[in-house]
Amino acid sequence: MTGFVCESVGFRYPTADGWITALSEVSLEARGHEIVSVVGPSGCGKTTLLKLVAGLLQPTSGSIRFTPGENGDRPRNALVFQDHGVFPWLKVVDNVAFGLEMQGVGPAERRARAMEFLQRIGLADFADRHPHELSVGMRQRVGIARAYVSQHPILLLDEPFGALDAQTRLLLQEELLGIWQEDQKLALFVTHDIEEAILLGDRVLVMSGRPGTVVEEIPVPLPRPRALAAPDRPEITEVKWHIWRHLEKEARRQLSIPG
């Protein structure tokens, strides 16, 4: 079963004014098949944590170990970012198939697999369009499709719905849940939205302000498959306010609002 363990992970980076510590003593464990949501105040290092798991950055202290794999080697992972990350010069089908191309899959097979997934999410008619011809929500679906078609065991999502309007956001949350339910990849989902974290996650990791660390791990008391109406349940409302109480103090400090 694919998974990873962060042990006392820290990360700091240099600036003109000296070193800044983004993360300190972050410890967590994630194993498939689950979605682990991460919430925290702005600037707490959520995206930095995601990049460390992805291997785009290296910890300055502590360690990240992966299983299975010899010596904790990092398995392949797929990333979905808020800004879509699609290549504007490639057609939709080629964007979706890009990860397969990087794996050495032949043209015919990768197009067939990409088209199959585009059909599944209702974008097959747009396969030969370019991203600028699509709506923002459709471009984000292309990014998610590329991540899934690549068939990497770990899915890393950095506020993928943050730039969307409320209606599109709800629809894509529901679509992501439906896609995930079929193969249940291990997913790390970073978001500012407490309700989204609860709706999508099996657990919610709450981070402190910078330097970020995990202050609490909260299990989500909802069975799967999920429904969009789930956050209206009393126990979910209780979890939501519990998380908010963690974040409120830091949010007030950032906005200079007295508590």
Describe the 3D structure:
A hairpin with a 6-residue loop joins strand 8 (203-207) and strand 9. Helix 4 crosses helix 5. With 259 residues, the chain is an alpha/beta fold. The chain contains 8 helices and 9 strands. The protein folds into 2 domains: 1-67 and 169-229, Rossmann fold (3-Layer(aba) Sandwich), CATH 3.40.50; 76-152, no CATH class. The chain is globular, with a radius of gyration of 19 Å. Helices cover 36% and strands 25% of the residues. The strands form 2 sheets. It has a 6-stranded mixed sheet, with helices on both faces. The chain has a 3-stranded antiparallel sheet with strand order 2-1-4, with helices on one face. It has helices spanning 46-54, 92-96, 98-102, 107-120, 136-149, 166-183, 194-200, 234-255; strands at residues 3-15, 18-31, 35-39, 61-67, 77-81, 154-158, 186-190, 203-207, 214-219.
List keywords for this structure.
single chain; 259 residues; alpha/beta; Rossmann fold; 2 domains; three-stranded antiparallel beta sheet; 8 helices
Provide a compact summary of the structure.
With 259 residues, the protein is α/β, with parallel strands linked by helices.
Question: What's the mean pLDDT score?
Answer: 88
Shape: globular
What's the count of strands?
9
| Low-confidence spans | none
**Class of secondary structure makeup:** alpha/beta
* Helix share, percent: 25-40%
Helical segment count: 8
The arrangement of helices and strands along the chain is EEEHEEHHHHEHEHEEH
Assign the CATH topology of the largest domain.
Answer: Rossmann fold
Report the CATH C-level class of the largest domain.
Answer: Alpha Beta
Q: Strand sequence of the main sheet, in spatial order?
A: 5-6-7-3-8-9
CATH superfamily of the largest domain: P-loop containing nucleotide triphosphate hydrolases
How many domains? The number is 2
